[in-house]
Specification:
16 strands, elongated
Length: 348
């Protein structure tokens, strides 16, 4: 009887402890939920401080100002994302950037907290969108759209609604070009000027240019070339500024991979000619891919990388600006020459 009595007491004690623990856990969950905004911001402050102490310069301190923005997502098969607003807004309040290496679109509604309410219902289409996230960054509302696959889009803003319509890339553009520069090289490039130059090229040749220069979230070479292969890009134009003792231009390609009519070698020859001519750097010919350029060997589309090697003493702000201008001219000449030689007929 003592054994049975002790066993029953043990079971009863365990049951009571389990119930009390469950109640405490539920209470804590409810309390944390009510303090979510506080912990959200203060948690990020701690992470920023820890990252700074660890020397992680790539961690953006602006993250501490991000706050969850609660919305309802309704799935409807219309190939669209619809975002209702309280008032009609002008187009200059809306910017859309493409983090294409992640199949992500980032929609920023400037001062959106003043014309978009929490709890609003957004319409999406799961056949195009894998996930939709919304947060507030200071006074702006940011909507991140993770797409199932690379796609083109168009957007309108009328009737107090921002509508993003999705389309297959090749239905909207004649050709697709990827302009690549290593992530660590982007600090030497003039982002706004490059984006404007690329937009003009897109309009002139009715092509889509995916440029890593405009990507704000860190990417790898593999991310970029996987994307280019997935969309069957017509070419990948790689460029890189390299610190060196002497000034010259070196073009690297995978000459062993043959693509009929227009391939790696043809693209590399055009890049070498245009970059050397526009930048006035001596062309040092082709080089084979090294391990750090392994993405060139993984490319299933025409691809080449031109390295512009500049001594550190010649990398002042003025010289960097002038070099950027010449590189942009070279990019335009490369697209023009490829279009006129290999893509004809093309409307201009």
């Amino acid at each position: 009887m003592d054994i049975v009595y002790k066993r029953d007491r043990l079971y009863r004690g365990t049951l009571i402890a389990t119930v009390l623990f469950t109640l405490m856990a539920c209470g804590l969950m409810i309390w944390f939920k009510t303090k979510e905004a506080y912990f959200d911001s203060h948690g990020r402050i701690a992470v920023v401080a820890e990252a700074a102490l660890a020397g992680q310069d790539n961690f953006s301190a602006s993250n501490i100002y991000k706050k969850n923005f609660s919305v309802q997502i309704v799935d409807e098969p219309e190939s669209k994302l619809k975002v209702p607003l309280l008032t009609q807004v002008s187009g200059d309040k809306i910017t859309i950037s493409e983090e294409f290496t992640q199949n992500k679109l980032v929609i920023t509604l400037k001062d959106g907290a003043s014309y978009m309410e929490e709890g609003e219902t957004l319409m999406s289409d799961s056949s195009w969108m894998e996930a939709v996230g919304v947060y507030q960054h200071e006074g702006d509302i940011v909507i991140e759209v993770y797409c199932q696959n690379p796609c083109a889009y168009e957007y309108t803003c009328d009737n107090k609604t921002v509508t993003l319509s999705f389309l297959p890339i090749r239905e909207q553009y004649d050709k697709v070009v990827v302009v690549y520069t290593p992530w660590e090289n982007r600090s030497s490039l003039l982002t706004n000027e490059w984006n404007q130059a690329i937009q003009k090229l897109e309009e002139s040749y009715h092509i889509k240019i995916y440029s890593t220069i405009s990507v704000k979230e860190e990417y790898t070479d593999e991310d970029m070339i996987n994307f280019a292969n997935h969309v069957h890009a017509d070419m990948v134009i790689g460029m890189e500024l390299v610190e060196a003792e002497t000034k010259n231009a070196v073009t690297i390609c995978n000459a062993a991979y043959f693509i009929p009519e227009f391939g790696n070698v043809e693209l590399a020859a055009i890049q070498e000619q245009e970059y050397a001519e526009k930048t006035q750097l001596e062309a040092s010919g082709f080089q084979k891919c090294e391990d750090k350029q392994s993405w060139l060997t993984k490319s299933a589309v025409p691809a080449a990388l031109t390295q512009l090697r500049i001594p550190l003493s010649q990398q002042s702000a003025e010289q960097t600006y002038a070099l950027n201008q010449k590189m942009m001219e070279a990019l335009g000449s490369i697209v023009k020459q490829v279009a006129e030689t290999y893509w004809l007929p093309v409307e201009k």
